[in-house]
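Possible regression after last week's pipeline update?

I re-ran a chain I had predicted before the update to compare outputs. Posting the input and the new output here so someone can diff against the archived version. Not blocking, just want to make sure nothing changed silently.
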Amino acid sequence: MKFGLRLIEYVGSPRQLVELAVLAEKVGFDSVWFPHDPFMRHTWVMMAAVAEHTDRIQIGTVGTNPYTTDPSEIASFIATLDDLSKGRSILGLGLHTRDMVGWTGHDATEVIERTRQSVEMIRALFAGEVVARETSEFSWSDQCYLRFEPYRREIPIYVAGFGPEYMTLSGEIGNGSLPMITPPESSAYMSAPILAGATAAGRKAEAVDICGCAWLSLSADGSGTQDLLRPMAAYFGPYLEDGAMATIGLSRADFSDIRGHIDNARYDAAQAAVGGNMFKLGLAGSPQDIIPRIEAAAEMGVTHINLGGPIGPDPAEAVRLMGERVIPQFKSH
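New output (post-update):
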Protein backbone atom coordinates (compact mmCIF):
# COMPACT_ATOMS: atom_id res chain seq x y z
CA MET A 1 0.00 0.00 0.00
CA LYS A 2 1.24 3.46 -0.93
CA PHE A 3 0.18 6.56 0.99
CA GLY A 4 -0.74 9.95 -0.42
CA LEU A 5 -1.66 13.21 1.32
CA ARG A 6 -4.36 15.30 -0.38
CA LEU A 7 -4.27 18.96 0.59
CA ILE A 8 -7.35 21.12 0.07
CA GLU A 9 -7.46 24.82 0.88
CA TYR A 10 -9.62 24.30 3.99
CA VAL A 11 -6.57 22.82 5.74
CA GLY A 12 -4.56 26.04 5.81
CA SER A 13 -2.89 28.88 3.95
CA PRO A 14 -0.81 28.17 0.84
CA ARG A 15 2.40 28.35 2.85
CA GLN A 16 0.99 26.00 5.51
CA LEU A 17 0.03 23.50 2.80
CA VAL A 18 3.57 23.56 1.42
CA GLU A 19 4.91 22.96 4.94
CA LEU A 20 2.56 19.99 5.34
CA ALA A 21 3.78 18.56 2.03
CA VAL A 22 7.39 18.89 3.19
CA LEU A 23 6.48 17.14 6.44
CA ALA A 24 4.66 14.40 4.53
CA GLU A 25 7.82 13.65 2.58
CA LYS A 26 9.84 13.56 5.81
CA VAL A 27 7.54 11.07 7.59
CA GLY A 28 7.20 8.62 4.71
CA PHE A 29 4.27 9.54 2.45
CA ASP A 30 4.74 8.47 -1.16
CA SER A 31 2.76 11.26 -2.77
CA VAL A 32 1.09 14.62 -2.19
CA TRP A 33 -1.97 15.73 -4.17
CA PHE A 34 -3.92 18.91 -4.76
CA PRO A 35 -7.60 18.89 -5.83
CA HIS A 36 -8.14 21.08 -8.88
CA ASP A 37 -11.51 22.80 -8.41
CA PRO A 38 -12.84 26.01 -9.97
CA PHE A 39 -12.57 29.13 -7.81
CA MET A 40 -10.30 27.54 -5.22
CA ARG A 41 -6.59 28.22 -4.65
CA HIS A 42 -4.90 27.10 -7.80
CA THR A 43 -3.49 23.59 -7.86
CA TRP A 44 -0.68 24.36 -10.28
CA VAL A 45 0.79 27.10 -8.11
CA MET A 46 0.74 24.80 -5.09
CA MET A 47 2.36 21.93 -6.97
CA ALA A 48 5.18 24.12 -8.26
CA ALA A 49 5.87 25.42 -4.76
CA VAL A 50 5.99 21.89 -3.36
CA ALA A 51 8.33 20.77 -6.13
CA GLU A 52 10.82 23.46 -5.07
CA HIS A 53 10.73 22.44 -1.40
CA THR A 54 10.87 18.63 -1.70
CA ASP A 55 13.17 16.02 -3.22
CA ARG A 56 11.46 12.63 -3.27
CA ILE A 57 7.69 12.78 -2.95
CA GLN A 58 5.47 12.43 -6.03
CA ILE A 59 3.29 15.48 -6.75
CA GLY A 60 -0.16 14.96 -8.22
CA THR A 61 -3.25 16.83 -9.24
CA VAL A 62 -6.74 15.44 -8.59
CA GLY A 63 -9.53 16.31 -11.00
CA THR A 64 -7.88 18.66 -13.47
CA ASN A 65 -10.73 18.77 -15.94
CA PRO A 66 -10.52 19.16 -19.74
CA TYR A 67 -13.31 21.75 -19.84
CA THR A 68 -12.21 24.76 -17.81
CA THR A 69 -8.59 23.98 -18.75
CA ASP A 70 -7.69 22.93 -22.29
CA PRO A 71 -5.59 19.77 -22.71
CA SER A 72 -2.89 21.89 -24.38
CA GLU A 73 -2.46 23.89 -21.17
CA ILE A 74 -2.67 20.77 -19.02
CA ALA A 75 0.08 19.05 -21.00
CA SER A 76 2.35 22.11 -20.97
CA PHE A 77 2.00 22.58 -17.23
CA ILE A 78 2.52 18.96 -16.24
CA ALA A 79 5.53 18.56 -18.53
CA THR A 80 7.05 21.76 -17.09
CA LEU A 81 6.42 20.61 -13.52
CA ASP A 82 7.94 17.23 -14.35
CA ASP A 83 11.13 18.96 -15.44
CA LEU A 84 11.14 21.24 -12.39
CA SER A 85 10.62 18.27 -10.03
CA LYS A 86 12.96 15.91 -11.94
CA GLY A 87 10.31 13.37 -12.84
CA ARG A 88 7.91 13.53 -9.89
CA SER A 89 4.70 14.85 -11.44
CA ILE A 90 1.42 12.95 -11.82
CA LEU A 91 -1.56 14.21 -13.81
CA GLY A 92 -4.94 13.37 -12.30
CA LEU A 93 -7.34 14.15 -15.16
CA GLY A 94 -11.13 14.07 -15.02
CA LEU A 95 -14.10 15.02 -12.87
CA HIS A 96 -15.73 13.70 -9.71
CA THR A 97 -18.96 15.56 -10.56
CA ARG A 98 -20.38 17.43 -13.56
CA ASP A 99 -21.77 20.20 -11.38
CA MET A 100 -18.62 22.27 -10.88
CA VAL A 101 -17.82 22.71 -14.58
CA GLY A 102 -21.51 23.44 -15.11
CA TRP A 103 -21.11 26.57 -12.97
CA THR A 104 -19.08 28.14 -15.78
CA GLY A 105 -21.45 27.11 -18.55
CA HIS A 106 -19.74 23.93 -19.73
CA ASP A 107 -21.89 20.99 -20.79
CA ALA A 108 -20.17 17.86 -19.50
CA THR A 109 -22.64 15.40 -21.03
CA GLU A 110 -19.87 13.77 -23.08
CA VAL A 111 -17.33 13.80 -20.27
CA ILE A 112 -16.21 10.21 -20.80
CA GLU A 113 -15.41 10.72 -24.48
CA ARG A 114 -13.78 14.08 -23.76
CA THR A 115 -11.60 12.46 -21.08
CA ARG A 116 -10.61 9.62 -23.42
CA GLN A 117 -9.63 12.02 -26.19
CA SER A 118 -7.80 14.33 -23.77
CA VAL A 119 -5.68 11.50 -22.37
CA GLU A 120 -4.78 10.35 -25.87
CA MET A 121 -3.85 13.87 -27.02
CA ILE A 122 -1.86 14.75 -23.90
CA ARG A 123 0.13 11.52 -24.15
CA ALA A 124 0.85 12.28 -27.80
CA LEU A 125 2.13 15.75 -26.85
CA PHE A 126 4.40 14.22 -24.20
CA ALA A 127 5.70 11.82 -26.86
CA GLY A 128 6.74 14.71 -29.08
CA GLU A 129 4.05 14.30 -31.70
CA VAL A 130 2.25 16.92 -33.75
CA VAL A 131 -1.30 16.47 -32.45
CA ALA A 132 -3.56 17.59 -35.28
CA ARG A 133 -7.03 16.30 -34.42
CA GLU A 134 -10.54 16.91 -35.65
CA THR A 135 -12.75 15.02 -33.22
CA SER A 136 -16.17 15.27 -31.64
CA GLU A 137 -14.62 17.31 -28.79
CA PHE A 138 -11.56 19.09 -30.21
CA SER A 139 -10.34 20.87 -33.31
CA TRP A 140 -6.55 21.09 -33.26
CA SER A 141 -4.34 22.21 -36.15
CA ASP A 142 -0.87 21.05 -37.16
CA GLN A 143 0.57 23.76 -34.89
CA CYS A 144 -0.37 21.72 -31.82
CA TYR A 145 2.86 20.34 -30.43
CA LEU A 146 5.12 21.09 -27.45
CA ARG A 147 7.85 23.63 -28.12
CA PHE A 148 10.15 22.00 -25.57
CA GLU A 149 11.39 18.51 -24.81
CA PRO A 150 9.72 16.94 -21.74
CA TYR A 151 11.88 15.56 -18.95
CA ARG A 152 9.94 12.29 -19.39
CA ARG A 153 8.09 11.19 -22.51
CA GLU A 154 5.74 9.07 -20.41
CA ILE A 155 4.26 10.96 -17.46
CA PRO A 156 1.69 9.02 -15.40
CA ILE A 157 -1.94 9.95 -16.02
CA TYR A 158 -4.47 8.95 -13.38
CA VAL A 159 -8.13 9.24 -14.39
CA ALA A 160 -10.51 10.76 -11.85
CA GLY A 161 -14.11 9.82 -12.49
CA PHE A 162 -17.50 8.92 -11.09
CA GLY A 163 -20.00 6.21 -11.92
CA PRO A 164 -19.27 2.71 -13.28
CA GLU A 165 -18.70 3.74 -16.93
CA TYR A 166 -16.18 6.44 -16.00
CA MET A 167 -14.42 4.12 -13.58
CA THR A 168 -14.22 1.48 -16.30
CA LEU A 169 -12.54 4.02 -18.57
CA SER A 170 -9.98 4.78 -15.87
CA GLY A 171 -9.00 1.11 -15.74
CA GLU A 172 -8.87 0.92 -19.51
CA ILE A 173 -6.61 3.92 -20.19
CA GLY A 174 -5.14 5.23 -16.92
CA ASN A 175 -1.78 4.55 -15.34
CA GLY A 176 -3.90 4.93 -12.24
CA SER A 177 -7.44 5.66 -11.13
CA LEU A 178 -8.62 8.22 -8.57
CA PRO A 179 -11.97 7.00 -7.25
CA MET A 180 -13.58 8.66 -4.26
CA ILE A 181 -13.75 5.97 -1.57
CA THR A 182 -16.21 7.84 0.59
CA PRO A 183 -16.72 5.74 2.61
CA PRO A 184 -13.63 3.50 2.58
CA GLU A 185 -16.02 0.55 2.82
CA SER A 186 -17.03 1.31 -0.78
CA SER A 187 -13.58 0.33 -2.08
CA ALA A 188 -14.77 -2.94 -3.63
CA TYR A 189 -17.68 -1.15 -5.29
CA MET A 190 -15.27 1.37 -6.83
CA SER A 191 -12.50 -1.12 -7.70
CA ALA A 192 -14.70 -3.57 -9.61
CA PRO A 193 -15.33 -1.45 -12.73
CA ILE A 194 -11.73 -0.19 -12.72
CA LEU A 195 -10.41 -3.75 -12.85
CA ALA A 196 -13.04 -4.69 -15.41
CA GLY A 197 -11.82 -1.87 -17.65
CA ALA A 198 -8.23 -3.04 -17.31
CA THR A 199 -9.20 -6.61 -18.19
CA ALA A 200 -11.25 -5.52 -21.21
CA ALA A 201 -8.24 -3.57 -22.49
CA GLY A 202 -6.00 -6.62 -22.09
CA ARG A 203 -4.12 -5.11 -19.18
CA LYS A 204 -3.04 -6.78 -15.95
CA ALA A 205 -4.71 -5.56 -12.77
CA GLU A 206 -1.38 -4.42 -11.33
CA ALA A 207 -0.91 -2.07 -14.29
CA VAL A 208 -3.48 0.29 -12.74
CA ASP A 209 -2.68 2.00 -9.45
CA ILE A 210 -6.04 2.31 -7.68
CA CYS A 211 -5.47 5.49 -5.69
CA GLY A 212 -8.57 5.73 -3.52
CA CYS A 213 -9.39 9.24 -2.29
CA ALA A 214 -10.58 9.10 1.31
CA TRP A 215 -11.30 11.80 3.89
CA LEU A 216 -9.09 11.77 6.97
CA SER A 217 -9.53 13.37 10.38
CA LEU A 218 -6.92 12.05 12.81
CA SER A 219 -5.78 12.79 16.35
CA ALA A 220 -3.84 10.75 18.90
CA ASP A 221 -6.92 9.80 20.94
CA GLY A 222 -9.60 10.50 18.31
CA SER A 223 -10.93 13.57 20.07
CA GLY A 224 -12.24 16.40 17.92
CA THR A 225 -12.10 14.40 14.70
CA GLN A 226 -15.77 13.90 13.85
CA ASP A 227 -16.73 17.55 13.89
CA LEU A 228 -14.00 18.30 11.36
CA LEU A 229 -15.75 16.03 8.87
CA ARG A 230 -18.95 18.07 9.01
CA PRO A 231 -18.00 20.56 6.26
CA MET A 232 -16.80 17.81 3.92
CA ALA A 233 -19.83 15.58 4.47
CA ALA A 234 -22.22 18.51 4.12
CA TYR A 235 -20.67 20.00 0.99
CA PHE A 236 -19.70 16.87 -0.93
CA GLY A 237 -22.10 14.26 0.50
CA PRO A 238 -24.98 15.16 -1.82
CA TYR A 239 -22.75 14.38 -4.84
CA LEU A 240 -21.65 10.91 -3.71
CA GLU A 241 -22.92 7.76 -5.41
CA ASP A 242 -25.76 5.77 -3.89
CA GLY A 243 -23.94 2.49 -4.49
CA ALA A 244 -20.94 3.69 -2.53
CA MET A 245 -22.94 5.17 0.34
CA ALA A 246 -25.08 2.05 0.59
CA THR A 247 -22.06 0.19 2.01
CA ILE A 248 -22.63 2.09 5.28
CA GLY A 249 -26.40 2.30 5.04
CA LEU A 250 -26.76 5.77 3.48
CA SER A 251 -28.20 7.16 0.24
CA ARG A 252 -28.45 10.52 -1.48
CA ALA A 253 -31.93 10.87 -0.07
CA ASP A 254 -30.38 11.18 3.39
CA PHE A 255 -28.71 14.38 2.18
CA SER A 256 -31.79 16.06 0.71
CA ASP A 257 -32.15 18.56 3.55
CA ILE A 258 -28.41 19.23 3.55
CA ARG A 259 -28.45 19.81 -0.21
CA GLY A 260 -31.25 22.32 0.26
CA HIS A 261 -29.22 24.20 2.86
CA ILE A 262 -26.15 24.22 0.59
CA ASP A 263 -28.14 25.44 -2.42
CA ASN A 264 -29.40 28.35 -0.33
CA ALA A 265 -25.98 29.16 1.16
CA ARG A 266 -27.06 28.07 4.66
CA TYR A 267 -23.74 26.39 5.33
CA ASP A 268 -23.94 26.35 9.13
CA ALA A 269 -27.33 24.64 8.96
CA ALA A 270 -25.97 22.11 6.47
CA GLN A 271 -23.08 21.20 8.75
CA ALA A 272 -25.32 20.96 11.79
CA ALA A 273 -27.47 18.42 9.93
CA VAL A 274 -24.55 15.99 9.52
CA GLY A 275 -24.81 13.09 11.94
CA GLY A 276 -24.97 9.32 12.46
CA ASN A 277 -23.37 7.21 9.74
CA MET A 278 -22.43 10.32 7.79
CA PHE A 279 -19.31 10.50 9.96
CA LYS A 280 -18.32 7.08 8.57
CA LEU A 281 -17.91 8.61 5.14
CA GLY A 282 -14.35 9.41 6.20
CA LEU A 283 -11.61 7.97 8.37
CA ALA A 284 -12.11 9.72 11.69
CA GLY A 285 -10.56 8.85 15.03
CA SER A 286 -7.22 7.63 16.37
CA PRO A 287 -4.56 5.62 14.52
CA GLN A 288 -6.00 2.47 16.06
CA ASP A 289 -9.41 3.38 14.68
CA ILE A 290 -8.35 3.95 11.11
CA ILE A 291 -5.77 1.18 10.55
CA PRO A 292 -8.37 -1.63 10.25
CA ARG A 293 -10.43 0.41 7.79
CA ILE A 294 -7.38 1.10 5.61
CA GLU A 295 -6.49 -2.60 5.76
CA ALA A 296 -10.01 -3.43 4.59
CA ALA A 297 -9.70 -0.98 1.70
CA ALA A 298 -6.44 -2.67 0.67
CA GLU A 299 -8.15 -6.05 0.72
CA MET A 300 -10.83 -4.59 -1.58
CA GLY A 301 -8.34 -3.55 -4.23
CA VAL A 302 -6.99 -0.13 -3.21
CA THR A 303 -3.24 0.00 -3.82
CA HIS A 304 -2.60 3.65 -2.95
CA ILE A 305 -4.69 5.50 -0.37
CA ASN A 306 -5.02 9.23 -0.91
CA LEU A 307 -5.91 10.90 2.40
CA GLY A 308 -7.29 14.40 2.55
CA GLY A 309 -9.97 16.76 3.76
CA PRO A 310 -9.64 18.19 7.27
CA ILE A 311 -6.61 15.91 8.08
CA GLY A 312 -7.10 16.52 11.85
CA PRO A 313 -7.60 19.08 14.63
CA ASP A 314 -3.85 19.74 14.33
CA PRO A 315 -2.95 18.94 10.70
CA ALA A 316 0.80 18.72 11.31
CA GLU A 317 0.28 16.37 14.23
CA ALA A 318 -2.05 14.23 12.10
CA VAL A 319 0.61 13.95 9.38
CA ARG A 320 3.23 12.99 12.00
CA LEU A 321 0.86 10.39 13.49
CA MET A 322 0.42 8.86 10.04
CA GLY A 323 4.20 8.61 9.69
CA GLU A 324 4.82 7.25 13.17
CA ARG A 325 1.87 4.96 13.83
CA VAL A 326 -0.03 4.16 10.63
CA ILE A 327 2.26 3.98 7.59
CA PRO A 328 4.79 1.66 9.33
CA GLN A 329 2.01 -0.89 9.86
CA PHE A 330 1.76 -1.29 6.10
CA LYS A 331 5.33 -0.74 4.97
CA SER A 332 6.56 -3.60 7.15
CA HIS A 333 4.37 -6.13 5.34
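Follow-up from reviewer: compared with the archived run. The radius of gyration is 19 Å. Marking as no regression found.
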